């Protein structure tokens, strides 16, 4: 392909919540020591590939933000201060700071659309703790494959909508030649990928910590309605759920 828009979706490294098997949701868990090592391994892997980003997006939750900062520091890119905001609000763009002389830098754009599932009253609990605190709810969740709305949690429709908003705005904002990192969470990544691929369903993807999903898009032809929509030279999945850097 000639010059294209390259998207690299990255799941955050292991958090303390992952270690403890907690349903993290919007809980602000930090990276574990293992997670920091995972992020450093990924950074070296991407550095060896010269996968330098032109733009970086991240969930503002600590486990994603810390992963992003470790990745950028290994590329000797000083993360600039950025405003935690809705990506779709142009007035909430991250602000620029002074860049050290002769040192490349890039601003991290924190987007609330990239946060993990907002799981309401289950936030931060282990399943055992949830069963003790909310036995009837947990029995219902265990008994049925159908979606059961958790009190104070977002709906599936709301989650898919924010994924759609993010992908739509990303495509509109960027052009061929841009190279994007998008650092997020396993659950919402499923919906982001489904939106990018144009699927009307969200599919289960068991993404491990620091797993990579890379897509190449001919941005100049994205909105065409011709047979180019089916031309796989223009829309490529370059890697999917790749975590070989941890082996």
From TrEMBL:
GO terms for cellular component: cytoplasm. GO terms for molecular function: phosphatase activity. Gene3D superfamilies: Phosphoglycerate mutase-like (3.40.50.1240). Pfam families: His_Phos_1. This is Histidine phosphatase family protein. Substrate binds at residues 11-18, 63. It comes from the Bacteria. The lineage of its organism: Bacteria, Bacillati, Cyanobacteriota, Cyanophyceae, Leptolyngbyales.
